[in-house]
């Protein structure tokens, strides 16, 4: 792993790792968000804040007039409950990678995200990685300054994902339950033939 790359572990959100999203960019974007408790995210937040501050100082050193114009945009944000609006105590990080890159000299090249399982075996089959999956994300922090908006920040360039515990997208609601001792379906009386269905049901 390159020295500039970092690794974080948390709960996956909105993973698009095998097929890039072209809704807002015709060249496609691979992406995944990661959430983890504030206490676990503190060190990474501090590290990214340091990179943002360093980029701010770098730009001001080149052009002092920017000191009162630039603002820092942190590459993470607190998570809020959709129903109550209360903070959940978690932090969300967003990682992205352009699927196709057009260089200034007219060249074009494609990129993909390396996805492996818990044993580091490459996942070549497209699997829907659902929200709540336990994953590790390898990424490269990339400081930037947008001249038009006067924003300074750090983008989190997605490089690879390791799936530790998969929650497949569209898993049934019963997946929230733990297995318990007690009644099992095999011990239930045999169900009658499915006579309740008629041709008009479909």
Characterization of the model:
Helices cover 12% and strands 41% of the residues. The protein has one domain (6-172): OB fold (Dihydrolipoamide Acetyltransferase, E2P) (Beta Barrel), CATH 2.40.50. With 202 residues, it is mostly beta strands. The protein is built from one helix and ten strands. The longest helix has 25 residues, at 38-62. Strands 1, 2, 3, 4, 5, 8, 9 and 10 form an eight-stranded mixed beta sheet that branches. Strands 6-7 form a two-stranded antiparallel ribbon. The protein is globular, with a radius of gyration of 23 Å.
List its traits.
two-stranded antiparallel ribbon, 1 helix, globular, mainly beta, eight-stranded mixed beta sheet, disordered C terminus, OB fold (Dihydrolipoamide Acetyltransferase, E2P), 202 residues
What percent of residues are in strands? 35-45%
Helical percentage: 10-25%
Q: How many helical elements? A: 1
Domain count, please report it: 1
Strand tally is: 10
Q: Using the coordinates above, name the CATH class.
A: Mainly Beta
Shape: globular
Fold-level CATH name: OB fold (Dihydrolipoamide Acetyltransferase, E2P)
Radius of gyration: 23 Å
CATH-level-4 superfamily name: Nucleic acid-binding proteins
Give the helices and strands as they follow along the chain. EEHEEEEEEEE
Q: Measure the end-to-end span.
A: 54 Å
Q: How does CATH name the architecture? A: Beta Barrel
Q: Roughly what is the average pLDDT, rounded to an integer?
A: 85
């Amino acid at each position: 792993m390159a020295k500039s790359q970092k690794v974080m572990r948390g709960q996956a959100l909105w993973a698009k790792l095998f097929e890039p999203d072209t809704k807002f960019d015709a060249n496609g974007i691979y992406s995944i968000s990661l959430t983890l408790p504030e206490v676990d995210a503190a060190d990474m937040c501090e590290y990214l804040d340091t990179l943002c501050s360093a980029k701010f100082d770098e730009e001001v050193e080149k052009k002092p007039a920017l000191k009162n114009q630039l603002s820092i945009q942190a590459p993470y944000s607190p998570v809020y409950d959709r129903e109550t609006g209360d903070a959940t105590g978690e932090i969300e990080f967003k990682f992205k990678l352009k699927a196709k890159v057009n260089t200034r000299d007219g060249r074009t090249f494609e990129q993909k995200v390396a996805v492996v399982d818990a044993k580091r075996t490459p996942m070549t089959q497209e699997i829907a990685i659902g929200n709540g999956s336990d994953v590790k994300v390898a990424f490269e922090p990339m400081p930037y300054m947008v001249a038009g908006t006067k924003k300074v920040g750090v983008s989190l360039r997605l490089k690879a994902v390791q799936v530790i515990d998969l929650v497949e997208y569209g898993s049934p609601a019963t997946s929230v339950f733990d297995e318990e001792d007690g009644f099992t379906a095999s011990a239930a009386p045999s169900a009658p033939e499915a006579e309740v269905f008629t041709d008009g049901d479909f």
